[in-house]
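Technical annex, item 7. During the second reporting period the consortium partners agreed on a shared format for inverse folding records so that results from different sites could be compared directly. Each record opens with the tokenized structure and is followed by the designed sequence. A conforming record, contributed by the partner at site C, is shown below for reference.
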């Protein structure tokens, strides 16, 4: 773990901050890219996991594309070196100005989430005198069996075009002269470790893709399988790099990619989660009536909301040498009881001023930070030595 290895250099820094291990990021991106390249697959890194410029530059330099869900992310991707033809743009509520920006930049595809959106993009493209390249995000009605808040492919979710809307869309398509349907897109959830979920996604996607090509006459160029590969939050030191090989092998085995089509993925978490830690300092310690020992730290849910929002687990480490051990609740600086990083974690005996690190915080940590309670947004430090 980086923070333990370089603890002396961190001690004098003002806390809290995110600490990024750039060599680990490089190794992770290379592993993902190599496993994808072996099969001719393309990866669009999902900026929502972490849009930090320094990380994006590393990811862009390795040759990955970008997956963006807002105009802000599309602009950030372009600024950080992603070629427009490697950028995809999705999200259920794209603003007109962002759609126009994406069309004008000539990005690879705008993945549409409703019939109405397709019609609006057609008319915006018409006004701009362009033909917009689009993809259709279809709702495959699959449960990803992950955290309830992280499942996106069931028919009761807000994402994707339903079968009924798709029928209507196919009927309207010949009249929509300013769009070109380049491919189809699926994304069923996040933090998925059970490969049988991706197998089910492949089988559903196969049915849909084959039907659209063979029976509905669509000349599809790509199928985008979204993101979702999970990481090991419980043993990050043992498993710093996710099993990209096993992940892509599942798709290779379970999905017959028709001749002339490309397969695309939008990985976020698996690329950046393990290279980031949140380093914080103990402000106060106390024991309440129930006997619970608290470590109250100078960070909280405004900087890492995952434990409060999803009950997510992040390993906690105390930096530096320590004697004896004790079980603590590690809580943050926000005025809510849900602002708890860990309810029960055993650490070396800890005092005011000691530093703690929350591991596996590179994805959906800094990107979901807010100024709740008017705490400042977190700082970032980068380590770029092997
Ligand atoms: N593509 C689309 C359309 C998505 O909605 C997402 C994530 C991804 C790709 C990237 O998925 P990943 O490879 O990172 O699983 N805040 C939550 C995760 C929300 C994921 C939202 N969509 C968390 O902290 O766990």
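Designed sequence (site C submission):
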């Amino acid at each position: 773990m980086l923070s333990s290895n370089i603890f002396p250099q961190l001690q004098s820094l003002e806390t809290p901050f995110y600490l990024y291990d750039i060599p680990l990021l490089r190794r992770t991106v290379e592993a993902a890219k190599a496993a994808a390249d072996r099969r001719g697959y393309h990866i669009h890194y999902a900026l929502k996991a972490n849009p930090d410029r320094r990380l994006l530059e590393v990811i862009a330099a390795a040759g990955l594309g970008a997956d963006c869900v807002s105009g802000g992310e599309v602009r950030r991707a372009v600024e950080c070196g992603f070629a427009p033809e490697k950028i995809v743009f999705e999200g259920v509520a794209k603003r007109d100005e962002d759609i126009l920006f994406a069309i004008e930049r000539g990005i690879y595809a705008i993945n549409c989430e409703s019939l109405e959106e397709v019609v609006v993009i057609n008319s915006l493209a018409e006004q701009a005198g362009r033909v917009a390249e689009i993809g259709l995000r279809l709702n495959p009605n699959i449960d990803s069996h992950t955290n309830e808040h992280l499942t996106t492919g069931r028919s009761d979710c807000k994402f994707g075009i339903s079968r009924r809307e798709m029928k209507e869309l196919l009927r309207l398509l010949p009249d929509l002269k300013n769009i070109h349907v380049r491919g189809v897109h699926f994304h069923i959830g996040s933090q998925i470790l059970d490969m049988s979920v991706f197998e089910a996604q492949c089988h559903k996607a196969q049915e849909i893709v084959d039907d659209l090509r063979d029976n509905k006459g669509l000349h599809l160029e790509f199928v985008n399988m979204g993101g979702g590969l999970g990481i090991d939050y419980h043993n990050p030191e043992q498993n710093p790099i996710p099993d990209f090989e096993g992940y892509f092998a599942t798709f290779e085995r379970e999905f017959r990619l028709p001749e002339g089509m490309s397969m695309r993925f939008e990985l976020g978490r698996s690329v950046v989660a393990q290279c980031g830690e949140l380093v914080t300092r103990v402000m106060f310690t106390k024991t309440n009536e129930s006997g619970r020992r608290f470590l109250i730290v100078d960070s909280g849910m405004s900087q890492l909301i995952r434990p409060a929002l999803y009950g997510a687990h992040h390993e906690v480490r105390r930096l530096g040498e320590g004697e004896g051990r004790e079980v603590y609740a590690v809580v943050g600086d926000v005025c809510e009881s849900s602002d708890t990083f860990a309810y029960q974690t055993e650490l070396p005996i800890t005092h005011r001023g000691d530093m703690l690190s929350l591991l596996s915080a590179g994805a959906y940590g800094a990107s979901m930070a807010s100024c709740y309670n008017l705490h400042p947004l977190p700082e970032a430090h980068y380590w770029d030595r092997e």
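Residues 314 and 359 are 6 Å apart (CA to CA). The chain has two domains: 22-272, 274-383. All partners now use this format for quarterly exchanges.
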